[in-house]
Design a protein that fits this description.
Blueprint (H helix, E strand, L loop, with lengths): L4 E6 L4 E4 L3 H4 L4 H4 L13 H8 L42 E9 L8 E13 L15 E10 L5 H7 L3 E5 L5 E4 L1 H7 L3 H5 L10 H17 L5 E6 L5 E13 L2 E11 L2 H13 L32 H10 L1 H6 L7 H7 L6
Antiparallel strand pairs: 1-2, 1-5, 3-4, 4-5, 6-7, 6-10, 8-9, 9-10
GO molecular function, one term: nuclear receptor activity
Subcellular location: Nucleus
InterPro entries: AHR/AHRR, PAC, PAS, PAS-like_dom_sf, PAS_fold, PAS_fold_3
Length: 349
């Protein structure tokens, strides 16, 4: 019911808990962020401000040797500084209330890649941590930030309306599907197990959209984001569903770890309009259905010249299948883009 999500961050900067609604605002799944460093999500210019607000006296120690400032835990990368009860205000004190703004990484359609959030809450004791000091004795409960995070800019009516249709998928770096949220399962009809057993995600992409998707995939590997990509996905009922997607790389320890794709279903008219715009920028047209599946300066092994000439959709698709066996003998890699098309069920077309 909140226009935001709940966040609990320990004094050391670890996300102890996040409500699942973090996915609606930042695009990260709840399980992706829990027990990770909050500073991996925060804009570098705002990290100091966040660190300051985690400290009970708004004065985190800069050096581990600084014994004079007692902290409710430890700053990231420094030894634990046990708080001194006589220096700490009582838990109900307004001194422990927090309200500040930080920019968080956002995987959704956000131009800068960051979303400004207002964090409002207070520092409270986090029980049940069972942490021990270096000598083995149990540490008392430490302070943690319990906050509600809401976007600084309220969502527009359009965003609220379309939020209910947006679904998200998680992929390996080669786009092999790993996970799909509940809305995605409803839109596409597959279970997560069915998505995973089909190989790379390109099996679900319409042949006429593959090269376009692959080009944006390459761009995402270079820049971290694909930009808006409109293409057709194969549903379980063997129908094509237009989606508008934005893919982002998610990094861990400075290395790309997986891809998160935010997708919004489109009606066929919207998809057709995007297709017409796309065909204007390409040397061949996919808008009328008279198309070459692959434009290549080099003849493809096993394909006679007639395949290179334009024909009706059904004809060119059938040609590609009828020569499929011969091509594979001539060394077409079954895991390649072309091999993936050949293995698709022709009833789909």
């Amino acid at each position: 019911a909140l226009n935001g999500f709940v966040l609990v961050v320990t004094s050391e900067g670890l996300i102890f808990y996040s409500s699942h609604t973090i996915q609606d605002y930042l695009g990260f799944h709840q399980t992706d962020v829990m027990h990770q460093s909050v500073f991996e999500l925060i804009h570098t210019e705002d990290q100091e401000e966040f660190r300051r607000n985690l400290h009970w006296a708004l004065n985190p120690p800069h050096a581990p040797e600084d014994e004079s400032s007692a902290e409710g835990g430890k700053s990231l990368g420094s030894p634990a500084v046990t708080y001194k009860p006589d220096q700490l205000p009582p838990e109900k004190s307004s001194f422990l209330e927090r309200s500040f703004v930080c920019r968080f990484r956002c995987l959704l359609d956000n131009s800068s890649g960051f979303l400004a959030l207002n964090l409002q809450g207070r520092l409270k004791f986090l029980h049940g941590q069972n942490k021990r000091s270096e000598d083995g004795s149990a540490l008392p409960p430490q302070l943690a930030l319990f906050a509600i995070s809401t976007p600084l800019q309220p969502p527009s009516i359009l965003q609220i309306r379309t939020k209910n249709m947006i679904f998200r998928t998680k992929h390996k770096l080669d786009f092999t599907p790993l996970a799909c949220d509940a809305k995605g399962k409803i839109v596409l009809g597959y279970t997560e197990a069915e998505l995973r057993m089909r190989g790379t995600g390109y099996q679900f992409v319409h042949a006429a959209d593959m090269l376009y998707c692959a080009e944006n995939h390459v761009r995402m590997m270079k820049t971290g984001e694909s930009g808006l990509t409109v293409f057709r996905l194969l549903t379980k009922e063997n129908r094509w569903k237009w989606v508008q997607a934005n893919a982002r790389l998610v990094y861990k320890n400075g290395k790309p770890e997986y891809i998160v794709v935010t997708q919004r279903p489109l009606v066929d008219e919207e998809g057709g309009e995007h297709l017409r715009k796309r065909s204007m920028h390409l040397p061949f047209t996919f808008a009328t259905g008279e198309a070459l599946l692959y434009q290549s300066a080099y003849p493809l092994s096993g394909f006679p010249d007639p395949f290179q000439s334009k024909g009706k959709t059904s004809k060119s698709k059938k040609t590609s299948r009828s020569h499929g066996g011969r091509s594979q003998k001539n060394g077409v890699d079954p895991s390649s883009l072309l091999g993936a098309v050949m293995r698709q069920d022709k009833a789909v077309y």
